[in-house]
Design a protein that fits this description.
two-stranded antiparallel ribbon; alpha+beta; extended; 3 helices
Length: 80
């Protein structure tokens, strides 16, 4: 699905399809976490209360290091 980045005041936004909001159980006013990874140009929207004790800060540090080390290879694979 394609969504357009729009200007909202001094910020920008991407709208979330109402079907996704409904199916995910979100409602207007809910607080969510938005994680981003500039290397992979991705965003992830998660419930604020979503946690996974197996994914530690050390794991994410390691993941960032691996992503940076193999950035060129990952990008080349993504294009195939």
């Amino acid at each position: 699905m394609k969504q357009k980045i729009i200007k909202v005041g001094n910020s920008v936004a991407v709208t979330i399809p109402v079907n996704f909001v409904r199916e995910a159980g979100y409602k207007v006013g809910d607080v969510v976490l938005v994680e981003h990874n500039a290397v992979y140009r991705t965003l992830m929207v998660k419930p604020k209360t979503m946690t996974n004790p197996n994914l530690t800060p050390e794991f994410f540090d390691w993941l960032d290091k691996v992503g940076k080390k193999y950035e060129k290879t990952i990008k080349e694979l993504a294009l195939k």
